[in-house]
Design goal:
Strand content of chain A: 15-25%
Strand order of the largest sheet of chain B: 11-12-14-16-15-13
Number of helices of chain A: 18
Largest sheet of chain B: 6 strands, mixed, barrel
Distance between the termini of chain A: 59 Å
Number of helices of chain B: 14
Largest sheet of chain A: 7 strands, mixed
Shape of chain A: globular
CATH architecture of the largest domain in chain B: 3-Layer(aba) Sandwich
Order of helices and strands of chain B: EHHHEHEHEHEHEHEHEHEEHEEHEHEHEE
CATH class of the largest domain in chain B: Alpha Beta
Oligomer: heterodimer
Distance between the termini of chain B: 51 Å
Number of strands of chain A: 16
Amino acid sequence: MQTKIVLDEEEMPKRWYNIQADLPSPLDPPLNPQTKNPASPSDLAAIFPMELIRQEMSADRFIDIPGEVQDVLRLWRPSPLYRATRLEKALKTPAKIYYKWEGVSPAGSHKPNTSVPQAYYNMKEGVERIATETGAGQWGSALAFATMLYDIQCTIYMVRSSYTQKPYRKSMMQVWGAECIPSPSTKTNAGRAMLEKDPDTPGSLGVAISEAVEDAATHANTHYSLGSVLNHVCLHQTIMGQECREQLASVESYPDVVIGCVGGGSNFAGISFPFAGDKLTGKHPEVDIVGVEPASCPTLTKGLYAYDYGDEAGLTPIMKMYTLGHDFIPPSIHAGGLRYHGDSPIVSRLVHDGVMRAVSYHQTEVFDAAQIFARSEGIIVAPETSHAVKAAIDEALKCRKSGQEKTILFNASGHGNFDMSAYDAYYAGNLSDYEYPDSLIRESLNRLPKVP
Amino acid sequence: MTFTIGFLVNPIAGMGGAVGLKGTDGLLNEAIRRGARPEAGNRALGTLRKLKNAPFRYLSCSGSMGEDILKAAGITGFEVVYQTVRNTSSEDTRNACAVFEARGVDLILFCGGDGTARDVYDTVLDRVPILGIPAGVKMYSAVFATTPESAADIILQTGVLVRHLRDAEVVDVDEEAYRDGDLRTRLHGYARSLYLPGLVQGTKHVLEDQDESRAKEGIGRFLAEVILGTPDILYLIGPGSTTGAIARELGFQKTILGFDAVKMGRLVSSDLNEEEISRLLLNEEKSRLIVSIIGAQGSVIGRGTRQVSPKVLRMIGIDNIIVVATPHKLSETPVLFVDTGDKDLDKAFGQYISVISGYQIAQRKRIGVMTSGG
């Protein structure tokens, strides 16, 4: 049996798959935060290059990956697909488990799949500097790597709790020449306002986004870049799912279940959109697509499907998505990359329409799963990824009960080599199983004035 | 100014336990007859040896109540401010603490059990921070360090420079019932004690977990919003300083050891007994109970809580109980115990309980099985 399914470099997809082309009706448009009217390309031009704005709004099914971007992606792509035979044996399951291993990129996660094209399009437009935010540091390090390739300066606002927890991600950004600032910072109005409200805040992705957007909007030579949520980011990540489909086809297989962890939604989108497209177009209507989120920040499972801001200060376009409210500050779990109040509008729409579904897990049980994975397959995954591992293990255990030989595919989106403090806390018994008390929160919001 | 510690030892603490008696109060002669020897001094020595090189000043008591142990630890910078007779009593503990307070100590470090904690607390209340070196038979109060050595660590790491202070419960344990294998604790009061923020999440991970008052303020703000958002529900708010934060947010003063009723954000009545609560509930369509976790063993509704009887709990309904606790408290109590005094009711809580631990944040905690009979 083949353990590692590897494509040749020539077999790397040359186009991204745009699922917007296969949606039964167009997405609800993003709204301008000031006028509340649908945002136009010019609304976004101050902070994004035009090609990314075009991709954001495109209805073309496929979009070509520029040759120069392909050259860089080939440093680690196509990434391997593993058959997890040792994990199957450990679980005594008849299920076939496959995982896409994205820890092979220079930054150690799937994030460079989009940081490289984003930096490339900015370079093409002559942008000198990019500002961004990062949660756990996966995105920050990926953008630091990409901007270095194209000689662009990079400033990264890193959520304060992660800045303290994950000092080595910050070091990676420095190695690649980027500036990394804990957020909230005193450099922006949004940061100063947050610090004034609460000097001891652990920060959040929502606040860090506000800071980076403000930085870009107030500096003429600076653009903004986002590592998840937006349509063009999900688009760039579809290279993973397309490779998986090829790799599985080479062993004459197709998944029954596709699983990814969800923070802003891009890694889940990347692994699942090509399969969701097959489902939408009737080629594989039965494929079960599962997004996995933390119980402490359960956007898809307990949030509202509504228009909300993408950031704390309300600077970004208003998007229709599942949200816990843009002012919600999730507790400081170790999977910092999953601490986001909202979600990708496309992922939200597909969950809302029943094309995909979502589950949530507590912190301790996902580390239990990560340990089982490390002790069978050898790889120590990032805390974010361990959510996908947990769901895959649960699906495989269901198969053990039912006797079904399902094919399960999950995205092993990144390694946990810089997250050992989280594993330390797990072994010391110090992980808190945070939850989102949704019914009480709904009641607490009753007293707020209703906005039409 | 030099950090000054009032140090005292209850020399007979723990003697009963060593010879199979569940407590020493009133049983000292029996304990001695069974061959018990004073051990508390040795326990305290474990703490003092670690503190020996720190630049502290000590005020203490004569003989086995302090002086002997300070000398044995090689500490010279101390002053005996309270003279004891040969057989010390709880009276001596209280008198010594009164002198410590009058002399303006920064901390009272005592060695003993729950009985000693109660004597210290009754004298200084929350005016002086206190920390217990565990040496007694029962140590269910939250003012105790886990070991004598960790008491020293807490002082060295937090006491002097940063002063991480928190409210810590002092509990009464029913001695008679306890000897029969039945643990009944009752909240006696809230002392001020030192704590190590680092105990939460292992290292300096979780910023919001490090500050007790910040966590309490978050819990108070959140539940005050819930109360205001549900004007048709009557809320019974139980004892404690964490629940007190809710009242503060709503703008009234809560009775610290009692149950108060609140509706539409306004105080309906305070310090209710069981009968008054039952009467009140009869007229309400829906009610909820907000309680905090009590004691070092982490009990939810200890059976010493006389006001909330199993009958009252059934009237309210288990689904309508909201438990609150700060992250630090939860980190010290990996498992919680539900102890209503009615086993069927205890079982109905299930395996897990969701505890509100901050603004819009809860933690799932496992419910353990009581092993102490009852």
